[in-house]
Design brief:
4-stranded antiparallel beta sheet, 6 helices, 32% strand
Length: 280
């Protein structure tokens, strides 16, 4: 897959080097280096070097080549919530892994992506656990991946065991649990982790929470709510009750994309049936 972009140099950008200009427009140093080596950076039909000085009115042409590397599987089921030439946002069902691995070689979101976009590398901009449902954004090219890496705002929804009556913040460092490759825990030598939450609904001895992550640690939401005594329903690993749902009741339900063209796109996904049933 090839993505071609054109930028015009403004008067305020006159005198910048091409590298400074491109970084201002969201290109990473790594991508700029690849563009130099591939000949994908042009000005007026001629190769542009990263050290070249730009003038107002210059038209910069960028050509980004991409290729896929994941085995395609068109039989994977996941709805597309939003799509344009730079990004696709899947509404991932639970029990579907995002990344291919030794355990999940041909049955992941990555395999579906490879089937839909055979000439594009699979670049999820953020990750969801296999049993977490909801919105998962994948960049279709290197430029979009660079821009969206810090350009996505996500809102999660979770149902926890117990009733939480007030909004709050959990600020507790998270690290790998001793003797485990997967499990995390709050520990003094962990990485800083901050979670904000607001109760939306209380019913059946449970609470539906709206959650925003200030940091993005592995299993952060699951670990933090277990730590304060309100484990996610179904989250057996962290002490949740699995009797009425067979996975952690966690859903990425809202996403704001700050797109490469500077526009903001808001995407939402309703709570799936298995989480809704906990509140009926």
């Amino acid at each position: 897959m090839t993505r071609e972009l054109t930028f015009s140099v403004s008067e305020s950008e006159q005198g910048d080097t091409a590298e400074i200009f491109l970084k201002r427009h969201g290109f990473s140093h790594k991508l700029i280096t690849k563009l130099k080596h591939s000949g994908g950076l042009m000005r007026g039909g001629e190769i542009l070097r990263s050290v070249d000085i730009l003038a107002a009115g210059d038209e910069i042409n960028v050509r980004i080549e991409d290729s896929g590397a994941v085995t395609p599987n068109p039989n994977i089921k996941a709805k597309i919530a939003f799509e344009n030439e730079d990004v696709v946002v899947f509404d991932k069902p639970p029990h579907l892994a995002v990344h291919p691995s030794i355990v999940h070689y041909n049955d992941t979101l990555g395999n579906l992506y490879a089937a839909l976009y055979p000439n594009s590398a699979f670049r999820p901009v953020h990750r969801l656990d296999k049993d977490t449902s909801g919105l998962c954004a994948c960049a279709k090219n290197k430029f979009a991946a660079s821009v969206l890496q810090n350009g996505i705002e996500k809102t999660y929804y979770a149902v926890v065991d117990g009733e939480i009556t007030e909004s709050g913040e959990i600020n507790a460092p998270i690290g790998r649990a001793d003797g485990s490759i997967i499990k995390r825990e709050v520990r003094a030598d962990g990485q800083p982790a901050v979670t904000l939450y607001k109760p939306i609904l209380r019913k059946n001895g449970r609470t539906l929470l709206e959650i925003t992550l200030i940091t993005g640690r592995t299993h952060q939401i699951r670990v933090h709510f277990s730590y304060i005594g309100y484990p996610l329903c179904g989250d057996e690993m962290y002490g949740g009750d699995r009797s009425q749902i067979d996975r952690q009741a966690l859903h990425c339900g809202k996403m704001i994309l700050n797109m490469p063209n500077k526009k903001k796109i808001v995407i939402e996904s309703p709570l799936p049936d298995d989480i809704n049933r906990l509140l009926r």
